[in-house]
Amino acid sequence: MGIIRKPKLTEIVAMKKLLDEASDEGKVLSRRLAEMFENARDFHVYVDAQGVGGLTALHIDLIDLAEVRSLVVRKDLRGSGIGRQLVEAAMDEAMHLDIERVYAFTRIPQFFLRLGFTQVERSELPYKAFKDCLQCPLFPDCDETALIRDITPKPQIS
Length: 158
Hints:
CATH superfamily: Gcn5-related N-acetyltransferase (GNAT)
Order of helices and strands: EHHEEEHEHEHE
Number of domains: 1
Largest sheet: 7 strands, mixed
CATH class: Alpha Beta
Structural class: alpha+beta
Low-confidence stretches: none
Shape: globular
Number of helices: 5
Oligomer: single chain
């Protein structure tokens, strides 16, 4: 049994290895190691006795918009609900930060649809296109589906 938490910097290399394996399978886009260190606070990890078993990042774009990205679960743990838990940890963080909408670009839209995301046209996320897509090796022939989820804020306690 493992836990979901923010990563330690000493885990970034293992996270990168897991991400690279998924990238080689065509499941996610690769990230540079330096980028992962720079954005370490964006990530949540699932850690068990074998080490890093999953990860995802909540990358803030604007005051009201963030992206869930780099969602990866180790092969032996896939289908066990860890991916869902990682996304929900990112969504909880977004809610805590008062972010109104979270989106994802994915090759596995069914997963995100089950988590309450709705498919949208990529043109509805123009900030993403200018920020990341222009640097992507798949641009302009992106094969990912754009999805978004509105966040209901938690009631404020006075």
